[in-house]
Amino acid sequence: MTTDIAETRLHRSIDRLPPDERQQIGRLRSFNLVMGLVHAVSASVMLALSSSFSIDVISLFQNAQPGAELDPARLESVGGLPIAALTVSFLYISAFFHLLIASPLGWRRYELEIANGINRFRWVEYSISSTLMIVAIALLPGIQDIAALVAIAGANVAMILFGWIMEVANPPERKSTWWTPFTMGSVAGAVPWIAITIYLIGGGSNVPNFVYGIFVSIFVLFNCFAINQWLQYRGRGRWASYLFGERVYAWLSLTAKSVLAWQIFANTLV
């Protein structure tokens, strides 16, 4: 249904936009190309220099009556998750989408959507890359249960999809703004951070200091994405232009992914 509504939104032709706005959109092609190359180079360097460090993902399945005492001996490793592969994956995914946008295959679609205040490329990419990021952050203080990681990933995907709905439901020519998707997305997005906070507090001094640094820095940066969208739909100052918010998203994405990736690399992969 979201896709159908999005299609009806694409009524503004790029050719009918003011020349200045067309030029700004045109410059986004080289901007995305550069962003994609920066992500790809960063990921490649990191992959080449990383160790084989991994964290076990575990399960603890019930084999007695509900309420029976859990037997730690039933903890089983589902498999080791290579942290280098997890870390470079969200960088490569971002690189792929930026380069897809800049390519002949994706540019016309991106150009049309941007002219109408939508960017589905961003939301699809974020639903994958930011979910891998939050899973990586959750693993570091000790959230290793496979069901917990799936739940954290699901909450993060829900947050991103609400952000997408917010964009689709609020066209540039709207008379008023429907804030419900933004509010619901904020609630869904808080869930992974609450779970991680519980483990940070419970782990106490056993949690390495760098994990706290990652938690604080990425928590702040993740919230900057929400602030950017809020400012976009408030439409004040420079955020009155959708194109300004689009550039801010790209810079935030590069910053957040780089800060997380290089903190993980420096503390676990060398």
In short, what is this structure?
The chain has 270 residues and is mainly alpha-helical.
Strands, total number: 2
Describe the oligomeric state of these chains in a short phrase: single chain
User: Mind telling me the CATH class?
Assistant: Mainly Alpha
What letter string, H or E per element, gives the SSE order?
HHEEHHHHHHH
Overall structural domain count = 1
Relevant CATH superfamily: Rhodopsin 7-helix transmembrane proteins
Range of strand content: under 5%
- Biggest sheet descriptor: 2 strands, antiparallel
**In terms of structural class, how would the helical and strand content be classed?**
mainly alpha
Stretches with pLDDT under 50, minimum 5 residues: none
Named CATH architecture:
Up-down Bundle
Q: How are strands sequenced across the largest beta sheet?
A: 1-2
Average pLDDT, to the nearest integer?
Answer: 93
**CATH overall fold name:** Rhopdopsin 7-helix transmembrane proteins
Number of helices: 9
Distance between the termini: 46 Å
User: Roughly what percent helix?
Assistant: over 70%
Shape: globular
Global Rg: 20 Å
